[in-house]
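Suppose you are handed a protein chain with no further information: no name, no annotation, nothing but its sequence. What can you learn? This example shows the usual starting point.
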Amino acid sequence: MIETEVETPWTGGTLIGIVGFSTLPAAFPLGPVLMAGLRARLPGVQVENMTWGPMHVVQRFQQADVPRPDRVVLVGAAAICRTPGAVAAYRWQGGALPPVEMQDRIYEAVTGIVDLENTLMIGTQFGIWPEVAWSVEADLPADTFQRMVMAESEGWADDAALAAHLGFSPAAVTAALIAATAGVLAGDATPGKRAETLVKLTAFTQNVALPVGART
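A reasonable first move is to predict its three-dimensional structure. Written in structure tokens, the prediction is:
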């Protein structure tokens, strides 16, 4: 049986948030196995489900009775998959985006899209992140979740079969996420990530100049 994670009060200190957490399929790298592994590896550190979108995260931190953490690690899927199954960690350095780009990210967030880079950027825009923050990111192809759901529903979702099907081992990705998260909290050096280096969004709307008299 897998318990469904619910929102719990943050207590301050160090917070690890799993962005895009899902209880199913059971082997999904951002699921209960990852959460249990992080809690076992880092006893006393708060590990939370961040299934909800960036604006919800902001609203929770803005509540008067919610303490701000001293350090934050966001664990999730990379914005773009370059090497399926690879894991990397970054020190978040903040920064700012042009107003139009920021508006696009907020618009994407309120439509219900859960994205690690949006969570970082929107959290910075609203001033909720502490000075010390990291992201730990897994390169997961966009269809990973769907393919794993199908494998589980068809009864062949063991790690070896999934590795052959996906091209990477979900169990190995989970283990690498745990190791990288523990590493940044222990002081491992990481490259910086800041607003200017985020993957560009595809705009929801495109403005096109039309000839005079043309229908819109």
